[in-house]
Structure formats: structure tokens, C-alpha cells
């Protein structure tokens, strides 16, 4: 599951960054969530790989559940914002202009659809990780 989290999160990051970010408030949050979740997941992995988990007296099953649960909520929100950005494809960028320039060009629209799909897939993976962490914590 960890590799799919990192892979899908990286793809979301790349896809959103490859657009012109027409709605910085919405897509800025998506980028923040993608980059922060990716970085914190790497830190979380390194804590276990380098044996720091044995040196720090914390209930790691509870920390694992809280981390993945919070990240699931943030990623699901990021998916909704990315999907909302994608749904605005047909609206004009400037309402007072005579030229009907769309918020998202056709190429950016396709990229935004892919980013929405991968954001959803990442949220599902974090949801599965949350369920598995809850199971480990409660057993």
C-alpha cells in the first residue's frame, strides 16, 4: 500500500503542477496536500527503517492510525477541490470579455481529469491504510 500511496501522490503532484493552475486557491490546496502527505509519508517510513521507532516511546499503532486518518481526510478534500476545478471547464475565464476563453483549455482539462482520478485513488489508498491501522491498533 505504501508504494501505491507514494506513486499516486507523486502523479497527482506532477499532474497539477503541469497545468497553468487557473484557480490557485483550489489547486494550491491540492498541491499542498500532495506534497505534504508525500513528504510526511517518507519521514514516517524512515522512522521505521532506521529504527527510531524503537527509541521513541509512543504507541506507533495509534500514531499510524491518526496519521493515515488525517491524511485520508485531507486527500479526500483535495480530490473534491480538484474535481471542482475540473468541473469548471466550460465556464469563461473573463465574464466581461468578448473572447470566450475557458478556465481550462482542452489539454489542461484532460490533465485535470487525470489528476482528479489519481487524487481519488490516493484518497482510497489512504482510507485502506487507515482501516488497516485501526485494525492493528485495536487488536
Structure description:
Residues 1-138 form the MARVEL domain. Keywords: Membrane, Transmembrane, Transmembrane helix. One of its GO terms (biological process) is myelination. It is found in: Membrane. The protein has one domain. The protein is built from five helices and no strands. The chain has helices at 2-17, 24-49, 52-55, 60-87, 106-138. The model has no long low-confidence stretch (mean pLDDT 89).
Instruction: Give the N-to-C terminal Cα separation.
Output: 20 Å
- Give the uncertain stretches in residue-range form: none
Give the rounded overall mean pLDDT: 89
The proportion of residues in beta strands is: under 5%
In one word, what is the shape?
elongated
| Count of distinct strands | 0
In quaternary terms, these chains amount to single chain
**Main sheet?**
none
Q: Helical amount among residues, as a percent range?
A: over 70%
Structural class label: mainly alpha
**How many structural units, i.e. domains?**
1
Number of helices: 5
- The ordered H/E elements are HHHHH
What value does the Rg take, in angstroms? 18 Å
